C-alpha cells in the first residue's frame, strides 16, 4: 500500500503539486490524468523517490520512503520515465539484465537468467534480444524498457506516459500487457496517461489532477461524465456509452460537439 | 564477459608486455646494472600515470553521462595546481619544511579528493545539464583555479618558486622519486576501491533516475566516485604535471576497441591502452626525434583535435 499525506512540491514560487493525499491499495491498474502542467509526472516522481517532496510524505507499507533502505525499495517499487535516452550503447538483453541489479548486485545467477528470459518473452522481445537499442523503433525500445522493469520484479510499477511515441496498435498492446500484469501477476500498476479513453477502457481507477491539486479519484464511470471532464480539461465534450465503456469525444470540432 | 572481449583484453595484455620489454631492453648500451634500474623507474612512472589518467577519464565520463568531457577539461588539473601551490605556500610560510615528502603528498591527495567531490558533486547530481553548459562551467572553473594558482605563486619566495616550478611541467624523466612509492600505494588503493564498485559504475552509466530506481545510493556513489577521480588525477598531476587531452584519446580508443557498457572490460582496456600509448610515444620521442619535442606537446595536439572533432560531431547530432 502506497499512501501520500499532503504531498507538496514547489519550484520557487510555483507550487506544482499541492497537498495531495491519496491511497494506492495493492493490485489493479490506476491511471493519473490531467492537462499539461497538472503535476502528474511530478507526483509520480515523488512516489518513486526520484524527487524530494517539499512538504508531506509518501509511505510504503506504513513506512516513510526516506526510512527505506534504497536497495530494499528497489525490490518493491520500479519507475519508468518517458525519457528513453541512454548515454551508452546497450543491447536489449543487457538493458533487461540491469533490472536484476537490485536482487543480484551485478552478479547474474541462473535464477536471474530465468527472470530475464521470462521478461523478454513476456514483452515479445526474444527475436531482437541481441540487437542494440539505438537500432530499434520507438515502440520496440519502449517495450525493452518495460521488460527491464518486469525483470526488476517489483510489486509496484510506475510508468510515466508509457503510450508516448506508440502507434495505435502498440499503444493498445501496451495497455493489454499492463492489464495482464495487474490481473495475472497481481502487480499494482500506476500510469500517467493523456488519453482519457485509454484510461477509461483499461484502468480500475482514474485519478484526475489539475494545477497541482487532486481534483477527482474514482472508477472510470464516475470520472467519465461531461461536467467532470469539462472541469478537468476546460473543454466541453459529449460522453457516449460504447457497450460497457464510456468514451469522451474530445477530438470533434466544436460545432459537432454541441 | 564474452569471448571476444576476453580475446581483445588478452591481446592488449600481450601488446603491453611486448612494449614494456622492448622499452626496457632496446638500444641499451653499457652496463645492465645501470640501464635496468634507470629505465625501470621511468617505466614505473609512465605506467602509474597512464593507468591513473585512463581510469579517471573513463570513470569521469560515466559519472557525468557523456563521452566528451574529461577531468582535465572540467578543471581538475587546475584545481590540483591551485591546491598544490596553496599548500606549498602554507607549509613554506609556517616553516614546516621538516614535514617528510610523503606527508605533504598525502595531504595534497586528500585535499584534492575532498575538494573535487564537494565542488563537482553539485554539478553532476543536479537535474539534466546541457553539454555546452558543462564545458562553459569547466572553462570558467579551470581559469579561476589557474588564476588563483598564479596569484599564489606570485606570493611565494623566488627561491621556493623554482622548486615548485620544477614540479609543474610534464616530464617523465624528472618525476619526483620520493613520491613514487606512496603514489603506487595510493593508486593501488584507489584501484581496489574501483574494482569493488565495478557493477555500481555500470548502473550509474544508465543515468540518475534509472540508477536510483535500481536502488543505488546515487548521491553517495557520485561523491565517492568524484573523490576517487580527484585522487587519481592528483597522483598523475603530482608525478608529471597536467596532461590535458591524453585521457580523452585513450578512452575513445578503448570505447572503439571494446564497445561495451561493462566497466570490468573497459577499465582494464583503457589502462593497458594508455600504458602502450605513452611508452610508444616516449620511445618515438627519444629515438626518432631525439628529445626534440616534449611528449605532452604531441599528445595535446592530437588530443585537442579529437576533442574538437567530438564536440562538432556531438553538436551536429
Automatic annotation (TrEMBL), chain A:
For this chain, one GO molecular function annotation is:
ATP hydrolysis activity
Official protein name in the record:
Iron ABC transporter ATP-binding protein
> Gene3D superfamilies, per this entry?
P-loop containing nucleotide triphosphate hydrolases
Its record classes its membrane topology as: Peripheral membrane protein
Hey, which family's this protein in?
A: Belongs to the ABC transporter superfamily.
**Domain ABC transporter spans what residues?**
2-236
Q: Name one GO biological process term.
A: iron ion transport
**Which species is listed as the source?**
Candidatus Dactylopiibacterium carminicum
Q: Pfam families in the record, alphabetically?
A: ABC_tran (PF00005)
| PROSITE patterns, alphabetized | ABC_TRANSPORTER_1 (PS00211), ABC_TRANSPORTER_2 (PS50893)
Automatic annotation (TrEMBL), chain B:
- Give yes or no: UniProt keyword Cell wall biogenesis/degradation: no
SUPFAM superfamilies the UniProt entry points to = ABC transporter involved in vitamin B12 uptake, BtuC
- A Pfam family hit: FecCD
Q: Which residue ranges does UniProt annotate as crossing the membrane?
A: 43-60, 72-94, 100-119, 131-149, 224-253, 265-285, 291-312
Keywords from the UniProt entry: Cell membrane, Membrane, Transmembrane, Transmembrane helix, Transport
Query: Is DNA damage among this UniProt entry's keywords?
Result: no
How does the protein's chain sit in the membrane according to the entry?
Multi-pass membrane protein
| Entries under InterPro entries matching the protein | ABC_BtuC-like, ABC_transptr_permease_BtuC
Could you provide one GO biological process annotation from this protein's UniProt record? siderophore-iron import into cell
**Gene Ontology MF terms in the entry:** transmembrane transporter activity
Q: Its GO CC terms?
A: plasma membrane
Q: Where in the cell is it found?
A: Cell membrane
Q: What family does the entry list?
A: Belongs to the binding-protein-dependent transport system permease family. FecCD subfamily.
- State the name under which the record lists this protein: Enterobactin ABC transporter permease
The organism of origin for this protein: Candidatus Dactylopiibacterium carminicum
Q: What is the lineage of its organism?
A: Bacteria, Pseudomonadati, Pseudomonadota, Betaproteobacteria, Rhodocyclales
Amino acid at each position: 500500500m502506497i499512501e501520500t499525506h499532503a504531498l507538496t512540491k514547489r519550484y520557487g514560487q510555483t507550487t506544482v503539486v499541492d497537498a495531495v493525499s491519496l491511497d494506492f491499495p495493492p493490485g489493479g491498474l490506476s491511471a493519473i490524468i490531467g492537462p499539461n502542467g497538472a503535476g502528474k509526472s511530478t507526483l509520480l516522481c515523488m512516489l518513486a523517490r526520484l524527487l524530494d517532496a517539499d512538504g508531506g510524505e509518501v509511505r510504503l507499507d506504513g513506512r516513510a520512503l526516506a526510512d527505506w533502505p534504497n536497495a530494499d525499495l528497489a525490490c518493491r517499487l520500479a519507475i519508468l520515465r518517458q525519457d528513453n535516452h541512454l548515454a551508452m550503447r546497450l543491447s536489449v538483453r543487457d538493458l533487461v539484465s540491469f533490472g536484476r541489479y537490485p536482487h543480484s548486485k551485478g552478479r547474474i545467477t541462473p535464477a536471474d537468467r530465468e527472470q530475464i528470459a521470462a521478461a523478454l518473452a513476456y514483452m515479445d522481445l526474444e527475436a531482437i534480444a541481441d540487437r542494440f537499442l539505438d537500432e530499434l523503433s520507438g515502440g520496440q525500445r519502449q517495450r525493452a524498457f518495460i521488460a527491464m522493469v518486469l525483470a526488476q520484479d517489483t510489486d509496484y510499477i510506475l510508468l510515466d506516459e508509457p503510450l508516448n511515441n506508440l502507434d495505435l496498435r502498440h499503444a493498445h498492446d501496451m495497455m493489454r500487457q499492463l492489464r495482464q500484469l495487474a490481473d495475472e501477476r497481481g502487480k499494482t500498476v500506476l500510469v500517467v496517461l493523456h488519453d482519457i479513453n485509454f484510461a477509461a477502457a483499461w484502468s480500475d481507477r482514474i485519478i484526475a489532477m489539475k494545477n497541482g491539486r487532486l481534483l477527482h479519484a474514482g472508477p472510470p464511470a464516475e470520472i467519465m461524465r461531461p461536467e467532470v471532464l469539462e472541469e478537468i480539461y476546460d473543454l466541453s465534450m459529449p460522453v457516449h456509452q460504447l457497450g460497457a465503456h464510456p468514451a469522451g469525444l474530445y477530438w470533434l470540432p466544436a460545432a459537432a460537439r454541441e | 564477459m564474452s569471448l571476444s572481449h576476453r580475446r581483445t583484453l588478452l591481446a592488449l595484455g600481450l601488446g603491453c608486455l611486448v612494449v614494456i620489454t622492448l622499452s626496457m631492453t632496446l638500444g641499451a648500451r653499457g652496463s645492465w646494472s645501470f640501464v635496468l634500474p634507470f629505465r625501470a623507474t621511468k617505466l614505473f612512472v609512465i605506467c602509474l600515470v597512464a593507468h591513473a589518467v585512463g581510469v579517471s577519464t573513463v570513470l569521469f565520463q560515466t559519472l557525468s553521462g557523456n563521452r566528451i568531457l574529461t577531468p582535465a577539461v572540467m578543471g581538475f588539473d587546475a584545481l590540483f595546481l591551485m591546491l598544490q601551490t596553496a599548500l606549498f605556500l602554507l607549509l613554506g610560510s609556517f616553516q614546516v619544511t621538516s614535514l617528510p615528502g610523503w606527508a605533504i603528498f598525502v595531504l595534497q591527495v586528500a585535499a584534492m579528493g575532498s575538494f573535487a567531490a564537494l565542488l563537482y558533486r553539485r554539478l553532476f547530481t543536479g537535474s539534466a545539464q546541457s553539454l555546452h553548459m558543462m564545458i562553459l562551467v569547466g572553462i570558467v572553473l579551470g581559469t579561476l583555479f589557474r588564476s588563483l594558482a598564479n596569484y599564489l605563486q606570485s606570493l611565494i619566495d623566488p627561491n621556493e618558486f623554482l622548486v615548485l616550478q620544477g614540479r609543474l611541467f610534464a616530464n617523465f624523466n624528472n618525476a619526483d622519486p620520493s613520491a613514487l612509492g606512496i603514489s603506487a600505494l595510493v593508486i593501488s588503493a584507489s584501484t581496489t576501491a574501483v574494482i569493488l564498485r565495478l557493477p555500481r559504475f555500470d548502473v550509474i552509466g544508465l543515468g540518475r533516475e534509472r540508477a536510483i530506481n535500481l536502488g543505488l545510493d546515487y548521491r553517495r556513489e557520485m561523491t565517492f566516485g568524484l573523490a576517487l577521480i580527484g585522487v587519481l588525477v592528483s597522483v598523475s598531476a603530482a608525478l608529471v604535471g597536467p596532461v590535458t587531452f591524453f585521457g580523452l584519446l585513450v578512452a575513445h580508443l578503448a570505447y572503439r576497441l571494446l564497445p561495451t557498457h561493462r566497466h570490468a572490460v573497459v577499465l582494464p582496456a583503457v589502462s593497458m591502452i594508455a600504458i602502450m600509448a605513452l611508452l610508444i610515444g616516449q620511445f618515438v620521442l627519444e629515438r626518432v626525434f631525439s628529445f626534440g619535442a616534449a611528449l605532452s606537446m604531441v599528445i595535446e595536439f592530437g588530443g585537442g583535435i579529437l576533442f574538437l572533432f567530438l564536440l562538432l560531431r556531438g553538436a551536429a547530432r
